[in-house]
Write a structure and sequence with these properties.
Elements (H helix, E strand, L loop, with lengths): L10 E8 L4 E3 L4 E3 L3 H6 L8 E10 L6 H15 L6 E5 L5 H11 L6 E4 L12 H12 L7 E5 L2 E4 L4 E2 L8 E2 L8 E4 L2 E4 L21 E5 L7 H8 L4 E6 L7 H12 L3 E6 L15 H6 L3 E2 L5 H13 L7 H9 L17 E2 L1
Helix pairs in contact: 2-3, 3-8, 8-9
Protein name: Asparaginase
Amino acid sequence: MERIRTEAPRRITLISTGGTIASRWQGTGYAADAGGDTVLASAATPDGLTVDVVDLFNVNSSRMTSALQLTLLRTVREVLADPDVDGIVVTHGTDTLEESAFLLDLFHDDPRPVVFTGAQKPLGATDGDGPGNMYDALQVAATVRGLGVLVVFDGTVHAARGTVKTQTLAANAFADPSAAAPLGRLGFGRVDIRHEPERPEPLPVPKADAAIPRVDVVMHHSDADATLFEAALAAGAQGIVLVATGAGNATPELVDAVAAAVRRGVLVAVSTRVPAGPLAELYTGGGAVDLVAAGAVLTGTLRAGQARIAVLAALLSDAAPAARADVLRRLIAAPAGTAVGTAGTGEEKTAA
């Protein structure tokens, strides 16, 4: 499949959703209030591009909701219904960017790229990173194909899957702690893609009137019991992500709570609070061996935020309730990415 485009595309659509890249001082702190045209005007535009702006919403991303994310998903689909659009850039706050990007990637079935970017410093900062990130995102959106949803930040191209915010304030905000290297990098007017991302077959987009299920996250820790897990169930959670310790370990009390929830039809996934590495069925006594036996699904290298998105997507799928755990396993067990060889003409992996 073609991964790099060498001809200049005609049209990129910028979908603005707020975040620090659109934030200005409000007297007591920063908040998103600038429109997409203003954000775009703060950055240079790569030669040969026409950029159309869609102001979708304008929120600090800590206020992101599943409803807003699904609105973004459907807006991307509507934009890509125009065959003259060559790619999309989404400006988004960094706090929940990893969740929105992964959600879109699970449903993205178009070779044209959707590229998320943002900023760690507010609009108008003299040393701001937003303009550079915007330029890079536009360049990637105009260049690559067939790589799904991407995150472009600080001169680096990341796959949506596995990429999380690893720095609260530093410019190199995003990484996949479990990956050997990002997909690629930018520099000197070139996009260098070294790997293909791991992606399962895309899901059908949920119907517009689909009810949004509640999916909660509960963390295990020393002295933890099942109280918060059971509180999530009492609140109506149809899915729960248990953030376990180590390679996916908890306690016998939590195993019992998981088993009872699964019997009620609740989809339970297990992630870990450890930054990197896969989950594994190693320990009993409340460990991953027992959690899996109770019906929970281990989430591989997905951490809590993206594990929750995978559970949400499985619940929104058209699969029968009894089959949703299998859908979740398929979303987690994406095929391994493929390295792109460094030999050749260079057009296989780079573009001006």
